[in-house]
Amino acid sequence: MAQCLICDLKVEKFIDFGQQPIANGFLTESQFNNEYFFKMEVGFCPNCKMVQLLEQPDREQMFHENYAFFSSTSDYMKEHFKNFAYSVIEKQLLAEDSLVVEIGCNDGIMIENFLNKNIPHLGVEPSKNVADIARSKGINVTSEFFDSKLALDVIEKYGKADAILSANVMCHIPYMHSIFEGIEKLLKDDGIFSFEDPYAADIVQKASFDQIYDEHTFLFSVMSVSYLANIHGLEVIDVEPQVTHGGSMRYTLAHKGRKEVSINVQNQIQKEKELGLDNIEAYNNFTRKVNIVKDDLMKLLNELKEKNKKVVAYGATSKSTTVTNFFGITPEHLEFICDTTPTKHNKFSPGAHIPVIPYEKFKDSKPDYVLLFAWNHAKEIMEKEKEYMEANGIKWIMYVPDVKVI
Ligand code: SAM
Ligand code: TMP
After folding, report:
1. Ligand 1, atom 5: closest residue by C-alpha
2. In the chain, where are the structural domains located?
3. How many Å lie between the centroid of ligand 2 and the Cα of residue 395?
4. In this structure, which residue's CA is closest to atom 25 in ligand 1?
5. Fold topology of 71-276
6. Rounded average pLDDT over 69-92
7. Residue 256: pLDDT over 90
8. HEC string of the chain?
């Protein structure tokens, strides 16, 4: 049995995805023989309630100068992060003498809003290629991994922060105690730390198993984040559900006793208990549902292959790496995956080695079916493709929360 990364007690395993590659490790044919794999198993800690990967690849395998995830590919997400930034400016009355630190700012999608308002800021972004895009927008970025040591360097150079923000990053970091130690030091007495990540309750309810991949060390809940905060002299003062990434939660933390705690926190913990997220049975039930989706989707893809139907996929997401490798989807099932991210083009998907092509070629391909890997952007994508799909009688295949052809 593995030890919990948060409280050191025993973690109970509930799903085994087998050998998995780096989810954003898009590769060329010459790299196939040296591809890196790790054993991806997930467990639940009955003590602190944290859901976690039992083994993680080294961070440098995932976050480096060729990191393939660029935040600004979705217009919806640009608007979402603008609203996030503006809500923090309002809550903390940020001005030209404040400091905002964003952990994992990627290409600057959120932090650029502070630059635009002349609010002093620092982005911490270890993946140099995406950090360079942020820098080209005029954003102040350091290309390092945030941890307790880096927090001290930041304090020395810039002073303490009025707001520390992060989105879709905290759940990526196994060394959570070092992160929280750093945040506790870096945050001003009346500062806030606000972060959001895919929410365990949404993942369990929708059986959205593909939110689990190498980068997602943790699936947070209000219960588990509260436990972690408490160890480090912090407390959760508010929680706000988000629709992004198939269902996320925004947690706002402050130094213990410094700010009023919203009733939302206890209410959300109560909801989590009603869903059974404090008990392994909810997670075992999730595994049963995932296996049904696996059987149904493979049955459908095998039938379409038998009938010589042309099936392609949309969105070479990190999530799709779990789907293809766990389910056994191959280039025999999917002719290609189209995507708007230039660095993924003319490469192959991790592990399954399905060709990734530029989005522009999608319209010429006239498939019979399109498997939507970027299901978290379904509204934006389906609206964009409605006319083309209807005019050519093309159907979407969805697999969250269950397999559907629409
Ligand atoms: N915040 C962006 C968003 O929501 O679109 C980017 C999210 S991306 C999935 C995760 C980012 O976290 C990557 O850009 C990665 O380089 C960064 N990251 C990983 N570990 C980090 C750490 N210890 N400190 C700061 N950033 C980190
Ligand atoms: P994400 O699910 O991790 O946000 O990744 C979304 C992926 O889907 C990313 O590689 C970009 C791609 N994408 C498209 O190809 N077209 C689109 O319209 C959108 C929104 C995303």
Report:
1. 71
2. 71-276, 282-405
3. 19
4. 104
5. Rossmann fold (3.40.50)
6. 95
7. yes
8. CCECCCCCCECEEEEEEEEEECCCCCECHHHHHHCCEEEEEEEECCCCCCEEECCCCCHHHHCCCCCCCCHHHCHHHHHHHHHHHHHHHHHHCCCCCCCEEEECCCCCCCCHHHHHCCCCEEEECCCHHHHHHHHHCCCCEECCCCCHHHHHHHHHHHCCEEEEEEECCHHHCCCHHHHHHHHHHHEEEEEEEEEEEEEHHHHHHHCCHHHCCCCCCEEECHHHHHHHHHHCCEEEEEEEEECHHHCEEEEEEEECCCCCCCHHHHHHHHHHHHCCCCCHHHHHHHHHHHHHHHHHHHHHHHHHHHCCCCEEEECCCHHHHHHHHHHCCCCCCCCCEEECCHHHCCEECCCCCCEEEEHHHHHHHCCCEEEECCHHHHHHHHHHHHHHHHHCCCEEEECCCCCEEC
